[in-house]
Design brief:
293 residues, alpha/beta, ten-stranded mixed β-sheet, 10 strands, 21% strand
């Protein structure tokens, strides 16, 4: 990991995101790009004449220039850092700057001062999660030291296998343990059965088939990290239940401090841009969540 992009707006969530990004940059010796975006839409109504608008005038109206200065005060001197101030819409500005700096990771708060259009997950966060080319870490909380317990939901999809690999790399860096967690969804398995199958086989062997499904997923995960685990403490656990709530219960029970997951799983067609489970987790989790593509 070489380049980390952090959008900030002066809000508490964006400050939390910066702290996460600083810690990750320290571990990986990565460069930080801190971007502050003056939201032109939020200040347009203060101009009477269209011709009066310029980038500098919009920035002056927004009075957000101090945000970058405050952010720089939190960055230790040993880190290489770049600052950028744009006039744009938040989501477009974030993705544009991520492309320019070839970001390996975007770290952002779940809600910022311009993210009021959605009740639970900010509109900018939602858009960036759906369209970013690199992983996105949503920092929902204050950073409390190194990550120690990383939870990775896995269903055998390629994106979930990428998430497992990312989790192992983060665990190496922070000395954390990793729990690969498979949730066997009974509804999905029943849906795959035809009426004839159900009549012929019955449902009494459903638990066995769910266990076999988990074993197949774990075999794929172990193969994906065979050359990467390097002494990391890894656990493989399977439960039966609805994926979203079951994952969050597991995270709470284990005292997890980071969730890493794919943006879409095997049932990714249920959502065009962001899978239903990852959307549920990013909306309801109080933990930092990294979405991998």
């Amino acid at each position: 990991m070489k380049n980390i992009l952090v959008p900030i707006d002066g809000s508490r969530p964006s400050h939390n995101a910066l702290q996460h990004a600083i810690d990750i940059a320290n571990v990986y010796n990565a460069e930080l790009t801190i971007v502050n975006i003056t939201n032109a839409d939020a200040v347009l109504d203060s101009f009477d004449v269209f011709e009066d608008m310029t980038d500098e005038k919009v920035k002056a109206k927004d009075k957000s220039g101090y945000v970058l200065e405050k952010a720089m005060e939190a960055v230790p001197e040993n880190l290489m850092v770049h600052t950028v101030q744009l006039v744009s819409t938040p989501e477009i500005g974030i993705l544009s700057e991520a492309d320019k700096c070839d970001a390996d990771l975007i770290v952002m708060g779940r809600r910022g001062s311009h993210s009021l259009s959605e009740q639970l997950l900010g509109s900018a966060s939602t858009y960036v999660l759906a369209h970013a080319k690199c992983p996105v870490l949503l920092a929902h909380n204050k950073k409390e030291g190194p990550y120690r317990r990383i939870l990775v939901p896995a269903d055998g999809s390629e994106e979930s296998l990428k998430a497992v690999r990312y989790a192992v790399e983060f665990a190496k860096a922070d000395g954390a343990s990793v729990t690969v967690f498979h949730v066997a969804n009974m509804r999905d398995l029943i849906a795959e059965e035809t009426a004839l199958d159900q009549k012929k086989r019955g449902l009494e062997d459903l638990t066995d088939r769910l266990r076999q499904s988990a074993d197949r997923v774990f075999a794929l995960c172990k193969a994906a990290i065979a050359d990467h685990k390097g002494g990391v403490d890894i656990h493989f656990v399977a439960n039966i239940g609805r994926p979203g709530p079951t994952i969050l219960k597991k995270a709470e029970k284990d005292g997890s401090d980071l969730l890493i997951m794919g943006s879409r799983g095997r049932s990714g067609l249920a959502s065009i841009l962001l899978g239903s489970v990852s959307r549920y987790i990013t909306t309801h989790s109080g933990l930092p969540v990294m979405i991998v593509k």
